[in-house]
Batch of 2 targets.
Target 1
Amino acid sequence: MAEPGGSAVELLRRFEAGERLALARVISKVENREPGYRELLAALYPRTGRARRIGITGPPGAGKSTLVDRLARLLCGDGGRVGIVAVDPTSPFTGGALLGDRVRMGDLSDVPGVFIRSMATRGVGGGLAAATRDVTLVLEAFGFELLLVETVGVGQIEIEVMNLCDTVALLFVPESGDGIQTLKAGLIEISHLFIVNKADRPGALQLASELDHVLKERRRDGWTYPVLLAEAVNGKGVAEVLGALQEHCTYLAAEGRRQAVRLRHAAHDLETALRERVRTYLYSEVLSPARIDHYAGRIAAGTLDPYRAADELWQESLAGDAIEPKQESSR
Ligand SMILES: Nc1nc2c(ncn2[C@@H]2O[C@H](COP(=O)(O)OP(=O)(O)O)[C@@H](O)[C@H]2O)c(=O)[nH]1
Ligand SMILES: [Mg+2]
């Protein structure tokens, strides 16, 4: 199918002219790893490196989307431009939570300066964190100076996504009760701000003081981890959250910390680009279906083990003399 709206060059021109449709198209290309996406990213990368990435994470229903909505409104009230990326890998098949986010944040898309993107987790495969990072890069290149990334903090992928943010806010709710449990899951290690949302419900103060207690020992590198109470749905405590986010920004600006963050992100970008190259190489040069069949046959017959088969394939392809098995070459 021809590129809707013209060539890649034309798409880039429209993107640079600030066309939102072109932005959406570029994001889709990048997210779905369509042909030419690497060239697009390469063209946009020089325009990145200045935006601020804020991660909002926590269990489903904690009020992340609500908080993101309120934060975005506050920020755009000052004429800011906010890009929002919502990631929810817990619903890869139904898309239910994603749709929920779209509906809930729906009216936010009418706010000038806001752009919302829900990551379609289908089809991204193992590269969700990489795809999310790339989507934020695209938004940044488009001119968004502030990016809010929402994830359900349930697994390794989310931790990786959050790792690519400058500042991470972790949400709790009073009734979750397993608040402190979550701290052991590794999310606390990468979080800078702790928010007990739904403070209108019983137990919020208790949880906040428990968190305070645990975090006292975590004072590190001159950063005191704040624990904040909020009622996102009523807009209460949101200004304080924004204040704490600003403080962390100021903190990062000092003593070369910003540079350290940038280096970490650059290393990740390089690793991602390299990993995807290797993967492409693997599937296009090393593992043809016919070759898999050929080796699988030998392994199943017991004449070869998968480890030696892998070595053999790898050596052959490195030497550039990988021989196609008969089934394929005779076609
Ligand atoms: N009582 C109460 N409900 C809230 C508060 N903040 C959000 N909610 C509600 O909690 C539900 C889940 O919110 P949502 O933002 O979708 O949570 P997410 O899954 O973390 O994104 C929604 O019905 C919100 O209206 C709050 O401060 N107090
Ligand atoms: Mg949500």
Target 2
Amino acid sequence: MALSVTELLSDLVSIPSVNPTGGPLQDETYGEARLARFVAEYLTGVGLKPEVLKAPDGRDSVYAVLDAGREETVLLEAHLDTVPPNPDQGDPFTPRIEKGRLFGRGACDTKGSMAAMLTALARIIDSGEEPAVNIIFAAAADEEYGMLGSRALAEKLEGKAGFAVIGEPTRLRMATSHKGVIRWRVTAWGKGAHAATPTLGENAIYRAARLVSAAEEHAESLSTGASHPVLGEGTLSVGTIVGGSGVNTVPEGCSFTIDRRYLPNESLEKVEADLTAALSSAVPPGGWTIERLPSECPPLDTAEDTALVRRIQKALEAEGLDPSAIPLPYATDAAMFARHGIPGVILGPGDAAEAHTAEESIDLGELEKAVGVFRRIVEEGTLG
Ligand SMILES: [Zn+2]
């Protein structure tokens, strides 16, 4: 007897898969390997042949193909990793069901989508109904940090899938666009000296402060800059700052990090050039350096007037849901696939406002509805 979607989600939540966010895999709650193995076993159990794909850092993603001899191939994808548990949260890896909701880390971001996609796949295979398209299911590592899993999958699946449905908590609304993200570390350089003789040194923190102010002014200017019909304007935020070695020393270095969300109609080169110009106006080049951080993700802007997007809209309507597109404030794996010629939409159960919170949860009625939506998207004869 196959697992219900709730039972499957409980199993997924109870296998921790915390993203190490650039650090080491500290203990067995970190990394995606155990969950990838579980998903591979599930796929084998429904009669598919899963492949494990390693990212350059060795982290596991997994995918399987259901070839129905159709012309089109749709990729259903959800990420394996979660953000770390909140220290105040009891046990986030023991799922708890209360008042029709399942609580636990990853419940909505994005193990709910994964459980619904896998259940839809299992039910189609079990029913013997014809898929309307060939289906690839993929579970990706590292969405929450460097998107290493979707980068590897997108390279592997380029030319094999024509469209992607990416599971994220959108309350079962469809998103066709989101901003891209680029991050930098800016380091102001100075000259060390004893704090008693500060004129013998050059204070890197004073320099960094002027650069941070320039970044803030640049951020304010974005609200009247380039604009997108769905996404609005780009944003910029300074996130961290580190500098100095002690109160009695004139600091030699001070670094801060910048997060910039940019639009599909902005070029990354111009985004970077504009920031560099703004910083240069505060402190001449030479007194500071800038480097890109590895967590870059391009923006997404999927055309809505295509047969597959219309099919998704019909699937939503058939489940009594609103088929119109919503903007997404955050970047997703969808952009990685789009960059490799696989355009797509983001769609899944759960509320993004619940994601990354201490009491992450998902409505079980919505989870079951998601199974219906995913099934209708890829199954023949389900759109009336
Ligand atoms: Zn997510």
